[in-house]
Amino acid sequence: MARLTAMSRIRTLLAAVLAVTLMSGCSSEEGSGGPLPDGQALLRESATAMKDVTSVGFVLATEGTPAGLPVKAMNGELLRNGDAQGDVTAVQAGLTIEAKFVIVGPDLYFNLMGGYQKTDKSMITSILDPSAILDPERGIALMLEQATGAKAEAREDGLVRISASLPGSAVAGLGIKTSQTLQGQVWINEEDKRLSKVKMNLDGGSATLSLSDFNADPTIQAPK
């Protein structure tokens, strides 16, 4: 009888340890901020917050060879009116092109080998139009509004990671040319509701757009 009682106590202790372990696992996923917020509601709040953004620093990076995205990497600064400056790596006709660029009004200044040349900005906007990214009707805000099936997954350094389905028409303003609905993830700052990052899964790879320096409003001028 004593042996059975001891075994019963051990089983009870093991069950308690297992329960604590499982609870700890759930707690670590949600973080110390309590239950995760409703993903769809947070996307709507972020769409509203992003409509007030006047400028951002941005980094577009890819993994693999994502279909429908000739831009392989891009980083720089962007104003809501479409003026921008930075560096871009793209593939055209099988050739990899690396260049510095400045967009001011209708003009594009690009530097391939040591000196800026001037042309119409359609040379780059036909691939990726920077003016669309902060446009409430074409860019990030539209993507957040039209995303469906949102589910908050975890907290990461003050950001809430949300998985969602992103319609092809809603990511066109981010330079993604597809008619398919993409599976992706967004990272939203829980305090100011701004989008920090979006990852889009495409055939052959993925593309990730990261944003920073909100409303810094940098001065962007034509190079001399």
Automatic annotation (TrEMBL):
Designated name of the protein: Lipoarabinomannan carrier protein LprG
Domain of life: Bacteria
Signal peptide start and end residues: 1-29
Annotated organism of origin: Actinocorallia aurantiaca
Family statement drawn from the similarity comment of this UniProt entry: Belongs to the LppX/LprAFG lipoprotein family.
Pfam families per UniProt: LppX_LprAFG
Upper taxonomic lineage: Bacteria, Bacillati, Actinomycetota, Actinomycetes, Streptosporangiales
Localization of this protein: Cell envelope
Keywords of this entry: Cell membrane, Membrane, Signal
